[in-house]
Amino acid sequence: MMPFLSRSINQIGKDADETSQHRDENFSLKASPKIPKTGTLVERLSSFYAKRGKHLFDAIAAFFLIIIFAPLMGLIAILIKLTSRGSVFFSHKRVGLKNEQFVIHKFRSLHVDTPSYSEKPDSIDDGRITPIGKWLRKTSLDELPQLFNVLKGEMSLVGPRPEMPFLAENYEPWENQRHLVRPGMTGLWQLSPRRQGTIRDGIPVDLEYIENLSFWNDFKILLRTFKVFWDNNTY
Fold first, then answer.
1. Residue-wise pLDDT tens digits, 196-231
2. Within a domain: 7
3. How many domains does the chain have?
4. Which domain holds residue 139?
5. If residue 104 lies in a helix (H) or strand (E), which one and from where to where?
6. Can you spell out the DSSP letters for 134-198?
7. How confident is the model at residue 54 (pLDDT cuts 50, 70, 90)?
């Protein structure tokens, strides 16, 4: 068993405390993260699974999951349009593999006039959340459009949480190594039910995940994700 999976998810997960300030987007990120010459990290990143298998599995799984969830996603889109004005989707820039930026997609759960980089709601009763948004955020179904990011190769099913560019520009070299893999829809850090602190507090967890990268470990994280989803939405 991997050391980090033998510990409680509560102890290793850290949540994003999104900043309320939006910096000018005309910045330059540091150079692509460097792969160390020796050690566990380079061994994992040199494996067949890391170089080919993980992306192949992601693409196949995302394709079938999109087909399976298509009716639900269509229903969610209709409910969003019926209960609030504005776009069905919320799109945001994130930093992905090798510091390349991409646009992440979610179902919109906040009212359209909410600033993109405003402080995240800490309560389901936050007035910025739309009627359908309360259900979407509780069930995490607002994340479903990210399956298209996975299909396009911008994200993975399992990996570090996708970082906002204006935060990633201040990373130290060792922190920047979390961008040696694609960000994930779920992961060790994302699974914590008491996610507190900042994204940077969870970077050691992301690096520990990369150092233990394997199909079997990703599979166990996916199983834990489905269990958490089921437990949180079953009465």
1. 556 667 788 888 888 888 899 899 999 888 887 766
2. no
3. 1
4. 35-229
5. strand 101-107
6. HHHHHHTGGGTTHHHHHHTTS-EEESSPPBPHHHHTT--TTGGGGGGS--EEE-TTTT-TT--S-
7. very high
